Amino acid sequence: MTTRLFKAVLATTGLTAVCSVGTAVAHHAFAAEFDRDTPVQLTGSVTEMKWSNPHAWIYIDVEDENGTVVNWAFETRAANSIIRLGWRPKDLPVGTILKVDGFQARNGSSTASLAAATFSDGRALFASP
User: Fold this and answer.
1) What are the domain boundaries of the chain?
2) 27-39 average pLDDT score
3) Which CATH architecture group holds 32-119?
């Protein structure tokens, strides 16, 4: 009986450790994906807002210097954090114009970490009340 109990406890402890490591590895460090030496400042029209965890995403269409429209993806805070600040999906409809500051992805893609965003009327996006 003692051996069976010991094996059950050992198996449960091992499974818990493996699951915990997977969760810890799944979340990335800022510097692993984004480059503080490559800031971006863009103005564009919201095409989508993904309310997901561990981070929500804002997608905006930005016209580049050649007139080509590029869809940028901005990683934001966690969706539950944004909701705790009082925001809801209806608060950022498609077509909303945003001025966005962030740091571009290390791979050079049109992906960035959101540092700040403001509406055309000057209100800050996701700012605390």
Assistant:
1) 32-119
2) 76
3) Beta Barrel (2.40)
